Amino acid sequence: MEVVSVKVDPATKKRMAKFRDINWSEVLREAIRRRLELEERLRSPIDRRRASEAARRMDEFRSLIGPSAYNSTKEIRRWRDLRRRS
Known about the structure:
single chain, mainly alpha, 4 helices, 69% helix
């Protein structure tokens, strides 16, 4: 195996020390593996045929529903305003 060093601030190190039973190296290895898988999926080429088919199906679905009076922008603003009042 290769060695990779990770620096953490003293407060984090102190918190980690409370959990001596945790193999922090394994936690970091697993986090790195998951992140690599995510990055590889996000950066892989797009299957244009599947993307076109998905867009076509969304347009078809939208046409079945028709126009709506629902205004998402107004609703978001309402909830943000309510949150600020608290």
